[in-house]
Amino acid sequence: MKILKTIIISAIIGLGIGNLLNLSLSLIGGYAYQPGVPTFLNQFDSFNQAVLIEFILYAALGICQGLARYIFQIEKRSIATTILSHYGLIMLPLVVVGAYLHWFPFHLWGIAGFLLIASLLYLGIGFFLYTSSKKDVETINAFLKKQATQLHK
């Protein structure tokens, strides 16, 4: 049941982030909102068809990335192996979906540029989560130390 909840929430988050990015890129680019990259949208007979495929891919991407967190529950791996596995589970579907939706030019430099930007975002999010968790651990440890000191009095 916990995995089903993760799948549903991750799909919704994927849909939200995908659509928010479409809107953000339209605003940044200074052009009228389009539900996707024009070269992707123009492959279809209707925008509805294209947007439906986009929504399915956004949800699938959200699910893949949401489930990737479970890699950290495998205890027999080193932290380096776990992080590299997680990175791969995040980046591979991202690049495949990005290529299909025409997020970047499909050549070596386009893929490399996309991976660089996505990797920097991955590192930034990872750093934020690390510092946040470290602060929580320090707070808990201080509380436990205070409790232990009070017990020994």
From TrEMBL:
Can you tell which superkingdom this protein's organism belongs to?
Bacteria
Instruction: Recite the UniProt keywords alphabetically.
Output: Membrane, Transmembrane, Transmembrane helix
Q: Any transmembrane segments, and where? A: 7-31, 51-72, 84-103, 109-130
- Name any one Pfam family assigned in the record: DUF3021
This chain's protein is named Protein of uncharacterized function (DUF3021)
